[in-house]
Design goal:
Layout lengths: L13 H4 L8 E2 L6 H10 L4 H16 L22 E2 L13 H9 L2 H8 L2 E6 L2 E7 L1 H4 L4 E3 L1 H5 L5 H7 L10 H9 L3 E6 L9 E6 L6 E2 L2 E6 L4 E9 L7 E3 L2 E6 L4 E9 L4 E4 L1 E6 L4 E8 L4 E4 L2 E4 L5 E10 L4 E10 L5 E10 L4 E10 L7 E10 L5 E10 L5 E10 L2 H9 L4 H17 L4 H15 L5
Parallel strand pairs: 3-7, 6-9, 7-10, 8-11, 9-12, 10-13, 11-14, 12-15, 13-16, 14-17, 15-18, 16-19, 17-20, 18-20, 19-21, 20-22, 21-23, 22-24, 23-25
Antiparallel strand pairs: 1-2, 3-4, 5-6
Length: 471
């Protein structure tokens, strides 16, 4: 008789949980000191202004107390035992053939080369603290699109002044303690510039893989979409499971100019020992549109609230997200929208799924400025709990300072109907298959907004999680 799987621990997560040796890697000492910050800057041969920014951020980090009255506990995160820089000793490559075999095997197992060939205009792959591979289609480059690393942009006389102008202006180091940490030790990430009027037919993608144990990843993504341009950018994240804390504290700054459109999609499957303390923010010009598509399936604790500032008149924002929390996971996610322009519109639609004692907390913050005449915003939050030991909370906040604005919020929390499961079982499904079908249907609004291969990845993640949902 075959034993029925009843625990998440029984699920084969080998696609993400494999590890590679760190032999020969460069690894800085644990903790956070001026010497470590100077070493990171020196290794990258940065301009003086960047080193000055790093040291100022380090002071800001040490000055700020650790927050204790907000969200899930991060008491298990000890920065004195986190290495802020780990790097394989390899140069950045533009051909997969030039990537070291063990690193290449990692990304091939995650499907990156295949995705690049079939559906991407360009791809960057980061392994621990450094980008190890970066490439873009020649026809895209001929359109004037720039897709490179922040480090390479800092060494280009054309783009260094642009990075200097924008870097750290949308997410200031004073935003919170882990923003300050990010600016002190950031490494890797992407710089994207799309010229006015250029529309990319295929997405760009960056994939972040944290392989090192007891380490942090602090990539910085800076995207500038000029007036009338159109870009879809995809971010993928994963890490193997260890039995000590890892940290992700990246930053994403998005500048969407007048009449432009940017879609930023994320499929995140960090390991369940990860503290994911990421910060993302976009500012949107007149008649421009910002779209977020977010799938969060991993980490032990998450704090993630992408923020959109609708600065220009008639600007708009759509946020579509799904969060899946299982055993040992406490995911505090949501989004913030600031409507400052006239006739601005925002739509937020999120779904969360929790099982095996997992905790989902959705926070939304809507701020309508005094001059945002006729602003419109709707927030919808739906939560599905698969058992009686899981938890789901919704915490909306609305600050409306213009009497002509219209802002609405609705939230529903429920469990899978027994009648639905019985009906599907009567049509030939097993109980596990029936529950998976219901959850996939619940998640469909997110998966339909992703390119096919990423929708398949998200559905596979749901299937892996659901294999332990009975019992």
């Amino acid at each position: 008789m075959t034993k029925e799987r009843t625990q998440v621990a029984d699920v084969d997560r080998s696609l993400y949980d494999f590890t590679k040796s760190e032999e020969g890697y460069e690894r800085y000492a644990d903790g956070l000191t001026p010497d470590i910050v100077r070493a990171i800057s020196a290794k990258k041969d940065e301009p003086q202004w960047m080193l000055d920014l790093r040291l100022k951020a380090l002071d800001e980090y040490h000055r700020r107390p650790m927050a204790t009255n907000w969200g899930p506990s991060i008491a298990g995160l000890d920065l004195d035992h986190i290495s802020t820089y780990v790097s394989p000793k390899t140069k950045q490559a533009s051909s997969w053939d030039d990537v070291p075999a063990d690193i290449k095997d990692t990304f091939e197992r995650l499907g990156i080369p295949e995705a690049e060939r079939e559906s991407l205009a360009g791809v960057g792959a980061q392994y621990d603290s450094e980008i190890v591979y970066h490439n873009m289609r020649e026809e895209v480059a001929k359109q004037g699109v720039v897709y490179t690393t922040i480090e390479d942009a800092l060494h280009d006389p054309t783009w260094e002044p642009v990075v200097h102008e924008y870097f750290g202006t949308l997410i200031p180091m004073t935003d919170h303690k882990f923003a300050a940490l990010h600016y002190a030790v950031w490494s890797g990430g992407s710089f994207v510039y799309v010229p006015a009027g250029v529309s990319l037919d295929y997405p760009l993608q960056s994939y972040f893989r944290l392989n090192a144990q007891g380490a942090g990843q602090f990539e910085h993504t800076l995207i500038i979409v000029e007036p009338g341009a159109n870009l879809h950018f995809i971010e993928g994240c994963s890490a193997p499971k260890y039995y000590e804390a890892n940290l992700h504290a990246g930053a994403v700054e998005l500048f969407v100019k007048d009449g432009a459109r940017l879609r930023y999609s994320t499929i995140e499957n960090w390991s369940k020992n990860m503290y994911n303390l990421n910060t993302k923010r976009a500012t949107v010009g007149a008649d421009a549109k910002m779209e977020w598509v977010s799938g969060s399936f991993g980490s032990h604790v998450s704090y993630l609230y992408p923020t959109t500032i609708l600065a220009g008149d008639r600007s708009s924002c759509e946020f579509t997200g799904i969060t899946f929390s299982g055993a040992t996971q406490d995911l505090d996610t949501g989004c913030k929208v600031i409507l400052n322009g006239r006739d601005t519109t925002a739509s937020v639609s999120t779904k969360s799924i929790s099982k095996d004692g997992g905790i989902n907390t959705f926070r939304s913050s809507v701020v309508v400025g005094r001059h945002a005449d006729n602003a419109r915003c709707t927030v919808s939050c739906q939560s599905l709990m698969l058992d009686n030991i899981s938890r789901s909370d919704t915490i909306p906040a609305m600050d409306v300072r213009n009497p002509t604005a219209s802002v609405g919020h609705e939230a529903t929390i429920g469990r899978i109907s027994d009648d639905t499961i019985l009906y599907l079982m009567s049509r030939g499904c097993s109980e596990q298959e029936a529950r998976t079908l219901v959850v996939n249907g619940f998640a469909n609004p997110v998966s339909k907004d992703l390119p096919m291969e990423y929708a398949v990845e998200m559905n596979n993640l749901i299937k892996l999680e659901m294999e332990g949902a009975i019992g």
